[in-house]
Specification:
Layout: E1 5-13, H1 22-42, E2 47-55, E3 59-66, E4 73-75, E5 87-89, H2 98-118, E6 122-130, H3 142-154, E7 158-164, H4 169-175, E8 183-185, H5 191-210
Parallel strand pairs: 1-2, 1-6, 4-5, 6-7, 7-8
Antiparallel strand pairs: 2-3
Helix pairs in contact: 1-5
Length: 221
């Protein structure tokens, strides 16, 4: 199979409502970055390219298309003084520009890798983690994102996964054209468990690629 490259895009809510899960978000995210490094060692013929976008009312591309040996970890505000360039300050505040975060992140991948993806040389996983609804996007509308995701999901080389703390998480994701199987309402008390399941899902996804299968039912529940 020529499709041996996976673009993994994480879109992480950094709005004020995430303040009560800072510790578990940092721990879960950092653990998953280590998992990506382990997957690269386990599946040595596979290529991984990881990007992280954080968002409140502003969207920030924290890093783009990094290989597993260069992934940056998160830190909290108690370590704001740290000069470690491999750590990103995670300090939730502000509003929720969810649509802009999705739209900007996807466009960034398409601008760089459109031909690879369209020619079945690479596939994309987009993981969206939030705990609230859109309330401050300026560049992209609901209709824009709905259309974008619907079109890309049809290609089979794009898989969108949506984790949210809101009671309507699954329905909200479905309305954006994300598959019901890849959407879940999570409990903030079990954030680490959800990050662990995403790691298991990544392992399963890559293993299936070795068998010439792109698994668009990504999320292990």
């Amino acid at each position: 199979m020529n499709n041996k490259k996976t673009y993994y895009q994480i879109i992480l809510d950094n709005s004020g409502s995430m303040k009560d899960v800072v510790k578990s978000t940092i721990e879960g995210y950092n653990k998953q970055m280590n998992t990506i490094k382990q997957l690269k060692e386990k599946y040595c013929d596979q290529e991984f390219s990881v990007s992280l976008t954080t968002f409140n009312e502003q969207v920030k591309l924290e890093f783009e298309r990094q290989n597993p040996n260069e992934l940056k970890l998160l830190k909290d505000e108690t370590n704001w003084w740290s000069s470690d360039k491999n750590r990103i300050l995670y300090n939730p505040n502000g509003l929720t520009a969810l649509y802009d975060a999705i739209g900007i992140s996807v466009k960034n991948i398409m601008d760089h890798a459109r031909d690879e993806i369209n020619e079945n040389m690479a596939s994309v996983i987009v993981l969206i983690i939030t705990d609230g609804h859109e309330n401050s996007s300026k560049q992209y509308s609901y209709e824009d994102i709905q259309s974008m995701i619907g079109e890309l999901e049809e290609s089979k080389n794009w898989t969108f996964t949506y984790l949210s703390n809101t009671p309507d998480a699954v329905d909200y994701a479905k309305r954006m054209n994300i598959k019901e199987r890849n959407a879940k309402m999570y409990s903030k008390r079990n954030m680490m468990e959800e990050w662990n399941k995403v790691s298991y899902s990544m392992d399963s996804y890559v293993e299936k690629k070795l068998n010439n299968e792109i698994d668009d039912d990504f999320l292990i529940h």
